[in-house]
Predict the 3D structure of the following.
Amino acid sequence: MARRGEHSSEEIRQMALDAAEAIVAREGYPGLSTRKVAAAIRYTVGTLYLVFKNLDDLTLQVNGRTLDALYDWLRARQDVNGAGSDPERAILVLANAYIAYAETETPRWSMLFEYAVQENEQPEWYLHKLGRVFGLVEAALAPLSEDVVETQRIARVLWASVHGICLLKIRQRLILAGNQDVETMTRMLVSNFLRGLRRVQDNQGSGIRGQGSKPIGVDP
Amino acid sequence: MARRGEHSSEEIRQMALDAAEAIVAREGYPGLSTRKVAAAIRYTVGTLYLVFKNLDDLTLQVNGRTLDALYDWLRARQDVNGAGSDPERAILVLANAYIAYAETETPRWSMLFEYAVQENEQPEWYLHKLGRVFGLVEAALAPLSEDVVETQRIARVLWASVHGICLLKIRQRLILAGNQDVETMTRMLVSNFLRGLRRVQDNQGSGIRGQGSKPIGVDP
DNA sequence: GCACAATATTGAACGATGTTCAATACCCTG
DNA sequence: CAGGGTATTGAACATCGTTCAATATTGTGC
């Protein structure tokens, strides 16, 4: 029996999160279990349930840490590769850094998405951490438009796409055609997307407004 | 006890897959269990293990069916919305149809990705079904280039991006900024990407070759 | 028709999971 | 040093995937 009061509940929380991270790094998200975490920190399951609501809560907190780590990682790469330059280069730096993180910390990164969240309500603190990461993309794109809302739009589209390519890289699922370099794919996406965007901006106002084609995708 | 020989093992297989689909539709992939499937088809777990290697095998076969259904769905939308027209419209039709499928059959569709495959070796038949779906994208893009390999590249990048946007739509995860219309986002991606591509093709040869910028994303 | 072999089907068993909560062991206060 | 308050436990329950000896059912040969 661990001596009573040996660790504050905050210490136990941190120890548990450390242990959980280690387990996930070693065995992936499916390998994470309350009993393993408890054993790793030399406590029993019961104690875990005094500190975490349940396993989902623990998972979410691990993911929160991952978001922080990801944010720091992206910032570090930004600083090294010159932040102030043009948006295209800034986005490429971010995208490559994102993909590099996913490759380096695959299990942790995967867990962000494998864990089926109750879509309903993620806690506010989690959304905040998410927003911090996302803000980096928006900041990089800011020079493209003075319209903040439109910048958000563009950022969302672009980052969803980068994420899609990242998924493609990590899970070998769609490997059919020749195994193509992911950095090349990313550059292809970013440069072509931004080029298309710029081209229209020069003439009209945005890459999206002013299309009057008839609706597509109506049910058969 | 089910009467011996009442169903051939192929019949049992189909019944089990039907039942599994129903369970997934109702409770999602996490709700799928061997005992539930067995109970639904009025057999016991043991029988299931005579027909499927294990739960992973059953899962993979359900996913195989989903890929077939997705293929048919996409084809149907293509036929209705005029296939032969320009690549941009063709891709938009496909993308919107893909997203519509994900929305309509969310649990089934999610299961395609939630299920953590052993990346090592997916069976040949599964890769084939996957390739059939993917081929639709390549076919739609074929007019853009005579180079088949380059078409594959473009298809992969573009579809990974569409998939990323689809993910964004389905899992509410990244909802931070204003809730933006997904069809608009898709159109934004596709039209800008293809516009950027076209612009370069007119001058050089591709949207990707000929960039000589120094490497990006070096470790700090 | 009947016994026997062949086999389709069962379900108990095992180890693992998340979660709960009465029982316990410990520390601090008086 | 006695007692109360509480941190910690771990057995219990319901689930899970998976296995395999036991059993029920059928078809065959006589």
Observations:
- Residues 4 and 185 of chain B are 56 Å apart (CA to CA).
- Chain B touches chain A through 69 residues (CB under 8 Å).
- Residues 55-80 of chain B form the longest helix (26 residues).
